[in-house]
Amino acid sequence: MAAKEFDIPELPTYIEIPELIPDVMKGEGPFKAIDEFQNPLGFPGGKVDNWKEVAIEKMGDLKSKYRSVQVFLDSCVKCGACTDKCHYFLGSSDPKNMPVARQDLFRSVYRRYFTFAGKHFPKLVGAKDLDDEMVDDWYNYFHQCSQCRRCSVFCPYGIDTAEISMAAREVLDTIGLGQKYCNQILGKALTIGNNLGLPEPALRDTLLDLEEEVEEDFGAPVKFPLDIKGSEILLITPSADFFAEPHIDGLIGYGKVFYQDGVSWTLSSYASEGANFGMFIGSYDIMRKAALRIRKAALDLEVSRVMVGECGHAWRVAYSFWNTLSGVGAGAQSGDEYALKLQNQLDDRYPQPQHIIEYTYDLIQRGKLNFDKSENDERTVTFHDSCNVARATNMGGIEGGQFILPREVIKAVCNNYVDMERSTIKEATFCCGGGGGLLTDDLMEIRIKGAMPRMQALKQVETNEGVNTLAAICAICKSQFSKVLPKFDFDPYMIVSVHQLVSAAIILDKPQEAIQMSESQTEATDAVEAKEAETE
Amino acid sequence: MAQICGADVDEEGFLVNLKDWTREIAIEMGKSDEIDLENEEAELYSERWEVLNLLRDYFEEYQIAPAVRVLTKAVGKKLGKDKGNSKYLYTLFPYGPGKQGCKFAGLPKPTGCI
């Protein structure tokens, strides 16, 4: 299938509300999942015959199960505060990508079937029938939302658009219209243990290879342990960290920090994935299944700490939901034997779960790590706040810690750091354009258009401050940027992990034998030199 | 379902049944991406086939495509250290060694947060 032709947006000097181009992003949406990917998740493959009844029943189910969804559907007053806050709207100009309009695709149907006014006077209250055209629009436009929640920050009622997108996708899955990208990946995560489908032998060999490489390059036996029972820390990181670039340089960074701290840590081949796509498709049950693999791994490996690597929505699921999903942290239900067991097993002197940035930051604060910042002197760095970390979590237990800690870690290892424009960072950060299950080639048009606002802010600091490095703590952001940066005339290699910067600057203790060897060599050379001096 | 040389391929042009792979299929796939995998005199012909064979060998052993770093290292060993990097792999396969290389080699498309 030939990809649709489209223009790559130009980067304006200022972001302005674009002139509307209705239906410019209308289309069939991303590839749909066939039986093979739908059925293992409990969804039918292809639109079921009585899809309308099933969809309406599911909407009713969701609105009573998640009261938040009903509140969000009821409380919008169409004030318009969100209209120009969505990166996909700003980049595409399609009015249905205004958050209020996209939500209204779902809300108008909710009104029609679940409110008195909508049932009896649909036209008066903007209530609409659920028909084929509507469901096509759902599939298309709810896959043009990365659930980044920037619009929610500006909503005076605090409506969480992401939850509406999640609900819509769950209804779509229930009637058989699932997205291939997300659901194929979930199948791999729930059977093999990670989104890539990297089986244990491949993972083991990849890690061994990495150990060799790191020792060769840095002269220290930094380990990347797998399935080591009794380790202190279980690291849960996105599988992209094992597989892709620039991610893997971040993994090397984590390994070096662990090595320098001297702590015992391990990865798990059973739970080798941080990213939990169950959240993207709005399915609590599937999100829980993925999280339970982590609980099982933590119990089996008898670890006392669970830590999360650089992954945006992994941290969101971990921070916000792991406690009730799996028992990491507080809040296990009293009847949940294994969750209670895990809570007793984990060491409550540490945050559970803990983010790798919190861990590294803490070591820096305690003076346990030494850096040669000049190693990063050719870089002028800016930090991209990833949406799920920025708007749904915290770090360090201090207000705004999720913004402060990553920046402090970067500043501890780099001499040159600048922020992008105020309205594009921290809680107002622009999504990379590839989050929420959109990181697939069949959505390249919306990914590129949606990246425009972030690219615009980046261009400003590149021009004015000489920024040449973009650091992030999310696997999706890193992959998305690698792909879209060149479309906007940036170097695709300017995107790095925060721990890649740490890795470049950290001074590693050399192992005892190596030190002794180099010392005895020095002594020997000294002796020779002394002798030579004597003879002279 | 679309076909190449009689073998089923998915929406993105990847083989549905990996055992269907033949050299002719790779050549056909290359043609639609304007990459010559047929003519031995073609530019980068042998380098491309080295990589495709590496991909196929690795997949046979591990049932997955190699991680980028594993592949670049292996390519470095085969074709010389200066070529063991992802920039070089992109010159061989402009759409990416993972995506385009795997397609030609008959491997499934690597997907995830990559």
For the largest beta sheet of chain A, what order do the strands appear in spatially? 2-1-3-4
The pLDDT mean of chain B sits at: 94
Instruction: Tally the beta strands of chain A.
Output: 7
- Secondary-structure-derived class of chain A: mainly alpha
The end-to-end distance of chain B, rounded to whole angstroms, is 26 Å
Number of domains of chain B: 1
What would you report as the Rg of chain A, rounded to the nearest angstrom?
25 Å
- Unreliable runs of chain A: none
Please outline the major beta sheet of chain B.
Answer: 2 strands, antiparallel
N-to-C series of helices and strands of chain B: EEHHHHH
What does this 3D model show about the protein?
Chain A has 536 residues and is mainly alpha-helical. Chain A is built from 23 helices and seven strands. Chain A has helices at residues 35-38, 51-65, 67-75, 87-92, 99-114, 116-120, 132-141, 150-154, 161-174, 180-191, 200-218, 240-243, 247-261, 284-301, 312-326, 337-345, 356-365, 387-392, 401-413, 444-465, 475-484, 498-505, 512-535, and strands at 233-236, 265-266, 305-308, 354-355, 381-383, 469-472, 495-497. Chain A has a four-stranded parallel β-sheet. In chain A, strands 5-6-7 form a three-stranded parallel β-sheet, with helices on both faces. The longest helix of chain A is centred in the last third of the chain and has 24 residues, at 512-535. The N and C termini of chain A lie far apart (80 Å). Chain B has one domain (3-105): DsrC protein, C-terminal domain (Arc Repressor Mutant, subunit A). Chain B contains five helices and two strands. Chain B has a two-stranded antiparallel sheet with strand order 1-2. In chain B, a hairpin with a 2-residue loop joins strand 1 (3-4) and strand 2 (7-8). In chain B, helix 2 (45-62) packs across helix 3 (68-79) and helix 2 (45-62) packs across helix 5 (97-105). The longest helix of chain B is centred in the middle third of the chain and has 18 residues, at 45-62. The radius of gyration of chain B is 13 Å and the shape is globular. The mean pLDDT of chain B is 94. Chain A binds chain B through residues 1, 31, 180-181, 184-185, 188, 194-199, 201-202, 205-206, 209-210, 213, 238-240, 242-245, 247-248, 275, 311, 439-442, 475-476, 479, and chain B through 11-12, 62-64, 66-70, 73, 86, 99, 110-114.
